[in-house]
Specification:
190 residues, mainly alpha, Arc Repressor Mutant, subunit A, 2 domains, 7% strand, rod-shaped
């Protein structure tokens, strides 16, 4: 049963309880009125008890509070409580985050498989370029911990294999991967 149906049902129960209480009070009032007419306008019975003093209003007060509470709860469920909507929205966010993680893991696995065909120095270069696509060649030298000459030879070899490409940038060059293994901004989702 959804929240709106529950709220409507609770309001109907509160209204029915109110109607029942009103009818019970009218019946009791009618009885007292009938007794007063039979006693020539007196509300005292033969044993001396007053019909008005003998009434029990606790039932009516409790019933009124209960029916009012039920109607207020029903209105709250109908109008204000959005718990189920929040849960559904949260479930969608979690589902999207899981899809992003799965996509990231697939791309990570693809990149790891891609690296299998390279030696250790080439892997260092490719990992550094993967982390920072467009890395300056001078920075790459320090990240890969290679000499300037060895780095230049390896980059030339990787360019010939069409794995990377370089673009001139000021007095150095920027290095880019030709294949894309980007993680689609996973950190913003998590």
């Amino acid at each position: 049963m959804n929240q709106k149906t529950t709220g409507s049902a609770v309001i109907v129960i509160g209204i029915l309880l109110s109607i029942f209480l009103i009818l019970a009070k009218q019946r009791e009032d009618f009885y007292i009125k009938t007794v007063i007419q039979h006693n020539q306008g007196s509300c005292f019975l033969d044993d001396g008890t007053c019909l008005h003093a003998d009434r029990n209003f606790i039932t009516y007060v409790f019933g009124g509070v209960l029916s009012t509470s039920l109607m207020m709860l029903g209105i709250y469920l109908l109008m204000f409580d959005k718990t189920q909507q929040h849960l559904a929205d949260h479930q969608i966010k979690v589902s999207n985050a899981l899809k992003q993680v799965k996509k990231y893991e697939k791309q990570k696995d693809e990149f790891e498989a891609f690296l299998k065909g390279f030696d250790d120095d080439e892997k260092k270069i490719l990992k550094a370029v993967h982390v920072q696509d467009g890395i300056k060649q001078s920075t790459l030298r320090y990240k890969a911990n290679l000499s300037k000459t060895k780095l230049s030879l390896l980059l030339k070899d990787l360019e010939e294999k069409e794995v990377i490409f370089r673009k001139p940038y000021k007095k150095t060059k920027k290095v880019f991967l030709k294949m894309s293994f980007k993680d689609s901004k996973l950190s913003t989702v998590l």
